[in-house]
């Protein structure tokens, strides 16, 4: 791939000149001796509008806008990818065509696609064995109200903290029959899944997300990656406030924005509200009669244990590496593939021993499980391609330059600046992990040590999760839609007001946090972080109570027949 010797940007083949610098490209990554001195940084408004920088982030925004307006996710994502390819190729048709499909090949994580296929097979087996229905009947006896069902859904999501993909698909498949009986809209189920996927994983030390964050800390930093992750937890306002918010919405019965319409329609028997039903009317038909609760519980438990085993195995745990280091160095995608493969084999043997499924039934579930994952796999592939195209256009360099230039002058405003930048970057690219890898090294260089370093990295993590939640091209958002069997556009549109509420409160808290750091300085410690967290939770509860009062909500739960 060609590289610019001035700004260091990477381009696709057949591009000969850097769009920003105007210099010829090298056919290899330039060495320090080959790097040219950068041009003087522009000042004022020119810093933001020169050299077509807005084109770098305009393309994903166009795709997102098209998706929300047309309700056609596939075509909108493809249109964004095609526009990005044309911009990269400078509107040369054949170069754009070649760029589009090469980027797609290079951006797709085939390990994650394989994990989705295997997990889809396991989920289909649990459904066909009758285990899912048996659990639904058991849960219906234990969970007598809509509120109890929603609490159980959130609790299950919090317990599956290993990986967000695994969380979304497992919680959705297990709880969907139960929530359907309690007349919970698919959009509400998708929101609860999303609110307990990434937010839980980003504050769980034993998770694929902890591994991604620790691996983003550059070598030679003044703090150990895993230690830094632990210290950021109390400052990770968006993740914590999102979980607190979901519990408040459950216990208060509050719904606002488009979600209220979906919930009102669900009480009348319409779980979808719109005609867009990518999974059909897949309500429980009551045909499965042979399964028991153990037919669902056993595969799920084995799946969790096998995924943890797969992660530490790829991290070198069985080669003498300690557990924490193995998690930090693991390949999450490969670990999930290994874990799901073990779970699939276990499920086959377990069901055959119990006699709940014949070999022919098992064989029939394999292609059906694959087909159930086709829709989210297509959306995910296009989202990855769009993200890769955004990288080729150099959006990350643009954002990084804005942030690095602001660090020195606005030191104590840096937490809120980083939060906003991370939200924007994760929203435009659809990846929180990519946002970590871009911004965490910048923050580490801006603040080599001290509590301000921890606060700023926490703002980066928090903003990345927020932008990930709001973006229609986010893989986690797509997985939440898939797990709930909800229209992806409906999930995004109903979740957005809730995400924006938590984001606005989080931004205010990071402003408060920066002011506290300016006052306390070196006196700031762990106790300070928990005091600020308590203040953040109180602020959120006050805001939500005001919203509830203005809507004139009674707080009484609607009584529905199961």
Give an overview of the whole structure.
With 562 residues, this protein is mainly alpha-helical. Among the domains are: 40 residues, no CATH class; 49 residues, no CATH class. It contains 26 helices and no strands. It is globular. The C terminus is likely disordered.
Overall 3D shape = globular
Helix content: 55-70%
Poorly predicted runs: 41-52, 554-562
**Average of the residue pLDDT scores:** 78
The percent range for strand residues is under 5%
Our measurement of the CA-to-CA distance between the termini, rounded to an integer number of angstroms, reads: 59 Å
Number of helix segments? 26
Structural class: mainly alpha
State the total count of DSSP E strands.
Answer: 0
Main β-sheet description: none
Secondary-structure element string: HHHHHHHHHHHHHHHHHHHHHHHHHH
Q: Radius of gyration, Cα only, in angstroms?
A: 24 Å
């Amino acid at each position: 791939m060609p590289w610019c010797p001035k700004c260091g940007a990477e381009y696709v083949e057949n591009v000969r000149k850097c769009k920003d610098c105007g210099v010829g490209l090298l056919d290899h990554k330039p060495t320090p001796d080959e790097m040219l001195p950068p041009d003087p940084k522009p000042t004022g408004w020119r810093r933001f509008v020169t050299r077509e920088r807005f084109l770098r982030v305009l393309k994903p925004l166009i795709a997102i806008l098209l998706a929300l307006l047309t309700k056609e996710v596939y075509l909108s994502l493809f249109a964004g990818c095609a526009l990005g390819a044309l911009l990269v190729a400078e509107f040369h048709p054949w170069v754009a065509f070649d760029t589009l499909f090469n980027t797609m090949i290079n951006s797709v994580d085939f390990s994650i696609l394989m994990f989705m296929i295997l997990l889809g097979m396991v989920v289909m087996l649990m459904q066909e064995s009758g285990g899912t229905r048996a659990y639904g009947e058991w849960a219906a006896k234990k969970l007598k109200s809509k509120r109890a069902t929603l609490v159980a859904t959130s609790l299950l999501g919090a317990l599956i903290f290993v990986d967000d993909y695994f969380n979304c698909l497992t919680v959705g498949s297990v709880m969907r029959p139960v929530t359907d009986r309690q007349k919970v809209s698919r959009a509400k189920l998708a929101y609860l899944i999303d609110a307990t996927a990434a937010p839980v994983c980003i504050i769980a030390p034993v998770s694929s997300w902890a591994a991604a964050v620790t691996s983003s800390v550059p070598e030679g930093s003044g703090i150990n990656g895993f230690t830094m992750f632990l210290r950021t937890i109390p400052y990770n306002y968006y993740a914590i406030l999102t979980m607190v918010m979901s519990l408040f919405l459950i216990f208060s019965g509050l719904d606002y924005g488009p979600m209220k319409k979906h919930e009102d329609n669900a009480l009348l028997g319409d779980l979808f509200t719109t005609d867009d039903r990518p999974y059909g009317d897949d309500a429980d038909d009551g045909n499965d009669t042979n399964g028991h609760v153990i037919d669902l519980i056993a595969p799920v438990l084995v799946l969790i244990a096998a995924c943890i085993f797969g992660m530490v195995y790829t991290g070198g745990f069985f080669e003498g590496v300690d557990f924490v280091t193995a998690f930090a160095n693991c390949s999450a995608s490969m670990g999930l593939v290994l874990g799901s493969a073990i779970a699939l084999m276990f499920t086959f043997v377990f069901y055959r021993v119990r006699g709940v499924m014949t070999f022919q039934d098992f064989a029939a579930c394999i292609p059906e499980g694959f087909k159930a994952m086709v829709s989210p796999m297509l959306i995910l592939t296009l989202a990855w391609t769009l993200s890769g195209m955004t990288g080729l256009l150099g959006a990350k360099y643009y954002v990084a330059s804005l942030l690095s230039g602001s660090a020195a002058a606005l030191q104590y405003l840096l937490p809120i600046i980083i939060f906003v930048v991370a939200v924007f970057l994760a929203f435009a690219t659809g990846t929180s992990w990519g946002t970590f890898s871009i911004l965490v090294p910048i923050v580490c260089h801006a603040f080599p040590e001290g509590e301000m370093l921890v606060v700023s990295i926490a703002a980066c993590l928090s903003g990345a999760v927020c932008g990930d939640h709001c973006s229609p091209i986010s893989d986690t958002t797509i997985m939440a839609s898939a797990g709930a069997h909800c229209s992806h556009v409906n999930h995004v549109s109903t979740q957005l007001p809730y995400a924006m509420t938590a984001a606005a409160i989080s931004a205010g808290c990071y402003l408060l946090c920066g002011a506290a750091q300016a006052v306390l300085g070196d006196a700031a410690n762990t106790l300070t972080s928990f005091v600020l967290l308590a203040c953040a939770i109180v602020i959120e509860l006050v805001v939500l109570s005001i919203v509830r009062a203005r809507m004139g909500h009674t707080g009484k739960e609607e009584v529905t027949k199961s």
